[in-house]
Amino acid sequence: VQLQASGGGLVQPGGSSRLSCSASGKIFSTSDLGWFRQAPGKQRELVARITVGGSTNYADSVKGRFTISRDNAKNTMYLQMNSLLPEDTAVYLCNQPLDYAGSWVRFLWGQGTLVTVSS
Known about the structure:
Blueprint: E1 4-6, E2 9-11, E3 17-22, H1 25-30, E4 33-38, E5 45-50, E6 56-58, E7 66-71, E8 76-81, E9 90-95, E10 113-117
Parallel strand pairs: 2-10
Antiparallel strand pairs: 1-3, 3-8, 4-5, 4-9, 5-6, 7-8, 9-10
């Protein structure tokens, strides 16, 4: 099973973008979910997570700029990214984190979606 991320592209610094992540209904109704990113030459990091009940937490690097949300009726999770910085450039992926840091995940990784922040 893979979760599919979409919505990336080229964005100017200071701009906004919204990513989407879709999966089967069974996954969405029972799973905490997270957005991860991997920049070139860097380790993959968990940037935002949301519980089944809707509680959220964020990495310090994106706190106050990114918002994670989910629509269980549509089996879709979102990441609204505002005030984007060049260092936000990365492939963004979604998955179910199995530990707090997101070092372990439940599903195979999908291809993710590339977000490039550049003028």
